[in-house]
Write a structure and sequence with these properties.
11 strands
């Protein structure tokens, strides 16, 4: 089994910053892409940012220039630095990872439990 544990959400004023982290643990052989998604009330879950094992990243247009995704492969951890936050960034943020598990060497998709980010105006 593999677990993704997120931390770092909270309440911040518009213009402020927050940093999220997500650590993967368990029967991990390797991890392919990792990413952050978010879901606001009444809306579909959307991709915020993703990063490959090699460090290539992509971002949703709405967060480009404000958010930065990074990862530490040795720690099986992905980070999301969020700057210049806006009220419309308010959502539950979910970590996602494509994990090659030790037992089968197959890739499975895992999700974290979600962490709330609230940006007040």
């Amino acid at each position: 089994q593999v677990q993704l544990v997120e931390s770092g959400g909270g309440l911040v004023q518009a213009g402020g910053s927050l940093s999220l982290s997500c650590a993967a643990s368990g029967s991990i052989f390797s991890i392919n892409a990792m990413g952050w998604y978010r879901q606001a009330p009444g809306k579909q879950r959307e991709l915020v940012a993703a990063i490959t094992a090699g460090g290539s990243s992509n971002y949703a247009d709405s967060v480009k220039g404000r958010f930065t995704i990074s990862r530490d492969n040795a720690k099986n951890t992905v980070y999301l630095q969020m700057n210049s936050l806006k009220p419309e960034d308010t959502a539950v943020y979910y970590c996602n990872a494509g994990v090659v598990v030790v037992t089968t060497l197959l890739v499975y998709n895992y999700w974290g439990q979600g962490t709330q980010v609230t940006v007040s105006s």
